[in-house]
Amino acid sequence: MKSMTGYGRGEAQGSQYRVTVEMRSVNHRYLEISLRLPKQLNMLEETLKKQVQAALQRGKVDVFLSLEQPGGKKVELTLDKELTIAYHYSLKQLAELTELPLTIQAQDFAAFPGVLTPEALADDVEEIAALAAAALREALAQLMQMREREGLNLLGDLASRIARLRSLTKEISALAPQLLIEQQQKLRRRIEELLADITVDEARLANEVAYLADKTDINEELTRLYSHCEQAEAAFSLGEPVGRRLDFLLQEMNREINTVGSKSNSLIVSNLVIEMKSELEKIREQVQNIE
């Protein structure tokens, strides 16, 4: 079992360039990858995305890649004229809106993202791509290790809560036969009170009471609850992403627990159902972060 929360960092050094990759992931229903690359490396985006997709199944993943030239080669900078003009125009609007003076010099624009960027020469793209792939591999390995550690912590908590659900289901199952008898007796008394002055066929009355009482029988729901708990515990040991599977099982558990609560008129069962719902909600919160 793996969490969807993690962080990783990787670095690869070549003869002319150094590539650093940082990545973080949080829970998400599907796999969503966001890459932030230097403008001159946009051509690598699809390749790097495929590298992440091959390793991860779910989560919102942010990848940050930076490129440096520590030495040995002259750095050439590219000026993005359109972006510079856009920054200047927006700053003028901001000054007018806030009624503050616009005091900005040319060197200030150099600090804005994308205005000045180092230009990688075409001959160096293959080297940079190899360094980026290596740095991403290292970052992915660290991120996956963290997700596995987090997953082990989640597994311990989930296993104990599923065990508690099984225990509560067992308590209600022990009460179910007596509850059914009491419900039959209650129905019989009510029918006899309503038909006090009318002669009633005892056999038919018994059949009607049994039919009405059967509508409050919760044994089928309890059996399915046991089965869902067993399937959840079996999923813990699968060597594959189980987040969606557990999410589905929780929906089914919630449906059965609600039905048990609505069918039973017992205060004891109602209190046990409340506790089951509390445990189920805690499990649901944890499952949202499982890959």
Q: What do the pLDDT scores average to?
A: 85
Strand order of the largest sheet: 1-2-4-3
| Rg, Cα atoms, Å | 32 Å
Strand content: 5-15%
Q: What is the end-to-end distance?
A: 7 Å
Overall description:
There is one protein chain. The chain is 60% helix and 13% strand. By secondary structure, it is an alpha+beta fold. Among the domains are: 77-118, no CATH class; 151-287, no CATH class. The protein has a 4-stranded mixed β-sheet. Strand 1 (6-13) and strand 2 form a beta hairpin. Helix 1 (45-55) crosses helix 4 and helix 6 (219-235) runs antiparallel to helix 7 (243-263). 22% of the residues are buried.
Short description:
With 291 residues, the chain is an alpha+beta fold. It is built from 8 helices and 6 strands. Helices cover 60% and strands 13% of the residues.
What labels would you give this structure?
291 residues, alpha+beta, four-stranded mixed β-sheet, two-stranded antiparallel sheet, 8 helices, 6 strands, elongated
Write the layout of secondary structure elements.
Elements: E1 6-13, E2 18-26, E3 31-36, H1 45-55, E4 59-68, E5 77-79, H2 81-98, H3 106-109, E6 116-118, H4 125-194, H5 202-214, H6 219-235, H7 243-263, H8 267-287
Parallel strand pairs: 3-4
Antiparallel strand pairs: 1-2, 2-4, 5-6
Helix pairs in contact: 1-4, 4-5, 4-6, 4-8, 6-7, 7-8
